[in-house]
Design goal:
Elements: H1 3-19, H2 28-41, H3 64-99, H4 105-119, H5 128-146, H6 155-164, H7 171-193, H8 197-221, H9 232-239, H10 241-246, H11 261-276, H12 283-298, H13 303-329, H14 343-367, H15 370-380, H16 383-392, E1 397-400, H17 405-411, H18 423-438, H19 444-450, E2 453-458, H20 464-470, E3 474-478, E4 483-486
């Protein structure tokens, strides 16, 4: 086995090992419940069936088929199957990203692993994985276009058609496309200014071609169950105060968190190579890096978009920097990664791949059984509290933790939730009053009376608990994960 193949195998087995974990998060549960509902009722969801604060309100998630697909995976393979689906998606996404890189294969591998580590904070069993998959495909096709392959661009409207029906993050496709369109327009404009007649016709053709693809992409977004209203979703999402107030994935990255270190290193590396490389950065590269870099600093959720772009830019410019360093230091060592290995080298190469492969398989074996997943769930979600409530059957509506909403929709459907991770449904109108009540701010009792709250399921550390105790609410259940209080009997 050649050294180049060893590096590729080790790289992707390492990413597989990194990506294999308990992938179901708090929002996965309501996605699964939505998929189950559509399978059972044999129709698409158009109104909210899961909460009492928005019961019957218009709600149609822009990825209904994905929810059905997720429920199918979960019903057939369980939580372990969801973990495998996520790890497989992550490996596929970074295989596509790998195709955008070039230069030394060792450099490409190291950069890809750093990029994977930078995005690891956002690997969960949710429909947004399709957004990252399509984003990687978009960037790959656009980089191929930049290298002279025009025909590949006609795939973009087709991908956009599927993307717009898979997840609300489809707008990212236009953000990837935009820099290439802008660069083409600038080059065409400069050619006209300089009266470069021979170049004008060619550049005009390229710009017109991109405008046509852009138009087809826009048209593709309208072919969905929601029609034109789908375009409202991305803009209403970023305009909500509640998103930035307490939902972690919409907040700026906390660089005191060690999990953010790979992203910080990747961000610094990209801008450093721009400064140190003799190769002039293209307009598209500058716009992509600065645009997605800025968005990543605004919201953790956008880091993956930057991660898709960064490896191509890094590997493109690092080769020049490494060559310069070698010349300055007089280093003449050259490793031929494609050379035929000796018998001993082949044994060592295969052994390395087998060892890393075994580590990856052990990770898969660890997170495949139902027991290991259930233990993780019990430590994060109110599993025991739900079992108690199924027997106790308290009266009235439920006020619940935002983080527990998704699990309660799945595990306790007999009690519609007050709120859950569907911020697009609840809007600030519900989420901000919930936030005030959860934090025990004055007026919580009026909110409870307004919605006829009979019992509360929240974390033991919630500030509201002190107010409930002062108001003589009865403690029904308590463990390390959740508490249940019920309205005092008169």
């Amino acid at each position: 086995m050649k050294l180049s193949r060893v590096i590729v195998w080790v790289t992707f087995l390492a990413i597989l090992a990194m990506a294999t974990h308990v992938a179901i998060d708090s929002d996965t549960w309501w996605h699964l419940k939505a998929g189950e509902w559509m399978v059972e009722h044999k129709q698409l969801i158009t109104e909210d069936p899961f909460s009492f604060t928005r019961q019957g309100a218009p709600w149609q998630y822009p990825g209904l088929w994905v929810q059905v697909f997720m429920f199918g995976v979960f019903s057939m393979l369980g939580a372990g199957g969801m973990n495998l689906w996520v790890s497989g998606m992550v490996v596929l996404i970074f295989w596509i990203v790998w195709k955008t890189t070039h230069g030394s294969i060792l450099t490409r591998a190291l950069v890809l692993i750093l990029a994977a580590a930078a995005s690891a904070i956002y690997w969960a069993a949710r429909p947004y994985l399709f957004t990252y998959l399509f984003a990687a495909l978009y960037f790959l096709l656009l980089t191929q276009y930049a290298r002279g392959d025009r025909k590949s661009l006609y795939l973009l409207p087709i991908i956009m058609l599927v993307w717009a029906n898979s997840h609300g993050g489809y707008l990212a496709g236009f953000l990837y496309f935009g820099p290439f369109l802008v660069e083409s327009g600038i080059r065409f404009w400069l050619a006209r200014r300089q009266a470069a007649d021979q170049a004008i016709a060619e550049l005009k053709g390229q710009f017109s071609h991109l405008l046509l693809i852009f138009t087809l992409m826009v048209v593709a977004t309208f072919i969905n169950p929601q029609g034109f209203t789908l375009w409202k979703l991305p803009f209403t999402t970023v305009s909500r105060q509640s998103e930035q107030l307490f939902i972690a994935e919409w907040q700026s990255p906390d660089f005191h968190n060690q999990a953010m270190l790979p992203f910080a290193l990747l961000l610094i590396a990209v801008f450093a190579v721009f400064a140190g490389s003799d190769k002039k950065a293209t307009i598209a590269e500058i716009l992509l890096v600065s645009g997605f870099g800025f968005l990543s600093l605004v919201s953790v959720r956008n880091i993956f978009f930057f991660v898709i772009v960064a490896p191509a830019v890094l590997t493109d410019h690092l080769s020049d920097i490494f060559e310069y360093i070698k010349r300055q230091l007089g280093i003449k060592v050259h490793v031929n990664f494609e050379a035929a290995p000796t018998k001993l080298q082949s044994i060592l190469n295969v052994s390395l791949v087998v060892i890393v492969g075994l580590v990856a398989m052990l990770r898969v074996a660890l997170y495949l059984p139902a027991e290991s997943n259930l233990e993780e769930f019990a430590a994060v979600y109110p599993v025991s509290a739900v079992n108690y409530l199924k027997d106790a059957r308290p009266e009235g509506n439920m006020f619940n933790s935002y983080n527990y909403g998704g699990y309660l929709i799945w595990a306790l459907p007999e009690y519609p939730v007050f709120v859950d991770g569907r911020a697009d449904l609840y809007q600030d109108e519900i989420i901000l009053p919930w936030y005030s009540a959860y934090n025990g701010i004055e007026g919580w009792e009026d909110l409870f009376d307004q919605w006829d709250i009979g019992f509360v399921v929240i974390e033991p550390t919630a500030p509201l608990i002190k107010n409930l105790e002062w108001a003589n609410w009865d403690l029904l259940y308590l463990d390390e994960v959740a508490v249940v209080y019920t309205r005092p009997t008169e």
